[in-house]
Specification:
Layout lengths: L5 E2 L2 H19 L4 E7 L3 H17 L2 E7 L5 H12 L6 E4 L9 H7 L11 H8 L8 H12 L8 E5 L6 H10 L3 E5 L6 H5 L4 E4 L17 E4 L3 E3 L2 E3 L4 H4 L5 E2 L6 H25 L1
Parallel strand pairs: 1-11, 2-3, 2-4, 5-6, 5-7, 7-8, 8-11
Antiparallel strand pairs: 9-10
Helix pairs in contact: 1-10, 2-10, 6-7, 6-10
């Protein structure tokens, strides 16, 4: 029997998150500060930052963007980050990726104070995640977990498959699902017979960067499918999932655009407020 399709509306879920964030800002009694850093003039990065700063304005977060030229050296970038670490009015810091090729993103990320790490990429925050003590975590995985919980999808005991093992999505999401007692498989470019793994997934998350990689015959009937991919094909934005074919089998599926992307931005807002809340707790103790 064919299942009833649910198109998972990331914009609607993000709107709900923003309502919650505005309420938390009001309880704080001050406007949390988010500082973003952009090195160079990558048009896509500029667009993403405009979206993030617009979200800040909607929820009551004070935001600022530090723009550095594309030829900025590592010392200057690290110095900029350290200055932001020392500012009491900046509660969260986001370094927009990708960086120009001559800069090491890992070294830059490690310079961000863990308590101000809006993206959750610092080793201290990643370590806490692996220990099951989730604090500031990567925003896209956190958004996917939020969506699953809001949809009432049972994570405990579920068969979950992640396609892609990046530090941004695949690895942290695997840890978050394990923290909630799912059975998790992580696939990647070296996985033999990808279909053999994906067709058993009750929860399938695809973050491979390959347009329409996942076909209908690779998806289990009634699966919940989260497409993290953003690809340009013939001038059109498409995901890593063959949406039109897979939606006929899935119980729930995210569109591209309008699915995981808005959730990621909304979770950045939530994490900024969390950083401010933790800062307030530290000052009180």
């Amino acid at each position: 029997m064919r299942c009833l399709i649910l198109i998972i509306d990331g914009k609607a879920l993000a709107s709900d998150i923003e309502v919650e964030v505005r309420e938390r800002v009001e309880r704080l009694g001050f406007n949390p500060g988010l500082a973003t850093i952009l090195v160079g003039e990558n048009p896509a990065s500029q667009m993403y930052l405009r979206i993030k700063h617009a979200a800040c304005e909607r929820v009551g977060i004070r935001s600022e963007n530090i723009m550095l030229p594309g030829d900025t050296d590592e010392g200057t970038l690290i110095k900029t980050i350290m200055e932001l670490n020392g500012r009491e009015d900046v509660h969260a810091i986001l370094l927009q990726l990708p960086l120009p090729g001559h800069l090491d993103p890992r070294r830059a990320m490690m310079a961000i104070a863990p308590e101000k790490d809006a993206d959750g990429f610092h080793p201290e925050n990643m370590g806490a995640l692996l220990l099951g003590a989730e604090r500031l975590v990567p925003c896209t995985p956190r958004g996917i977990i939020y969506a699953l919980e809001r949809l009432g999808v049972k994570i405990e005991g579920a068969e979950a498959v992640i396609v892609g093992h990046s530090n941004v999505v695949g690895k942290p999401l695997a840890a978050m699902l394990l923290n909630r007692n799912a059975t998790v498989q992580v696939c990647h470019v070296y996985t033999k017979d990808l279909r053999e793994h994906t067709r058993d997934a009750e929860i399938l998350v695809v973050a491979a960067g390959v347009p329409r990689l996942i076909k209908a015959d690779m998806v289990r009937d009634g699966a919940y499918v989260f497409d993290v991919g953003i690809n340009k094909v013939d001038g059109k934005t498409v995901g890593d999932v063959d949406f039109d074919a897979v939606k006929e089998k899935a119980a729930g599926i995210t569109p591209v655009p309008g699915g995981v992307g808005p959730l990621t931005v909304a979770m950045l807002m939530s994490q900024t407020v969390m950083a401010a809340e933790l800062s307030l707790e530290r000052r009180r103790s």
